[in-house]
Amino acid sequence: MPKIYKPGKVAVVLQGRFAGRKVVVIKQYDEGTREHPFPHAVVAGVERAPLKVTKRMGAAKLAKRSKVKPFVKAINYSHLLPTRYALELEGLKGAVTPETLREVSQKEDAKKVVKKLFEERYASGKSRWFFQPLRF
């Protein structure tokens, strides 16, 4: 069976708290691990997308509405729907590892790094589709 979930692949979460949210795969585990004995992927996603901005808004309001709230999680393959899209974020792989998911302080630090990377990506105008919520 071909590997569907490669690093950088964009997927949609189907089940759980983050259902309907877009995620990018950071690392895949086709055989599972001791903590998670099922096929899963470590992902980073957008919990709360940036709000709409207009030309009339000032710089402070624009900065406030352009914030992204990320999440980092290990998700079962059966709860993910792969898309045809991929997203290249260079700093994600080093920032989020399976070890960071074990401790709360490390997970919070990883989320800060992901937030910074996502906000830079959004501000540059690349991959705007990733930061728009799904409408269904």
List keywords for this structure.
136 residues; alpha+beta; SH3 type barrels; five-stranded antiparallel sheet; 3 helices; 5 strands; ribonucleoprotein; Ribosomal_eL27_sf; Translation_prot_SH3-like_sf; 60S ribosomal protein L27
Architecture overview:
- The N and C termini lie far apart (31 Å).
- The protein has a 5-stranded antiparallel sheet, covered by helices on one side.
- The chain is globular.
- The protein has 3 helices and 5 strands; from the N terminus they run βββαββαα.
- It has one domain (9-125): SH3 type barrels (Roll).
- With 136 residues, the protein is α+β, with helices and mostly antiparallel strands.
- It has helices at residues 59-65, 92-95, 104-124; strands spanning 9-13, 22-29, 40-48, 69-76, 80-86.
- GO terms for molecular function: structural constituent of ribosome.
Structural class comes to alpha+beta
How does the overall form come out from the CA principal axes? globular
Q: C-alpha Rg, in Å?
A: 15 Å
Strand order of the largest sheet: 4-3-2-1-5
Please, how many helices?
3
Described by strand count, sense and barrel closure, the largest sheet is: 5 strands, antiparallel
Determine the mean pLDDT: 89
Q: Regarding CATH, which class?
A: Mainly Beta
Return the CATH topology.
Answer: SH3 type barrels
How many domains, in number, for the residues?
1
How many β-strands, per DSSP?
5
Terminal Cα separation, in Å?
31 Å
Helix content: 10-25%
Low-confidence stretches: none
User: SSE string, helix = H, strand = E?
Assistant: EEEHEEHH
Q: In the CATH classification, which architecture applies?
A: Roll
β-sheet strand percentage: 25-35%
GO biological process, one term: translation
Family: Belongs to the eukaryotic ribosomal protein eL27 family.
Protein name: 60S ribosomal protein L27
GO molecular function, one term: structural constituent of ribosome
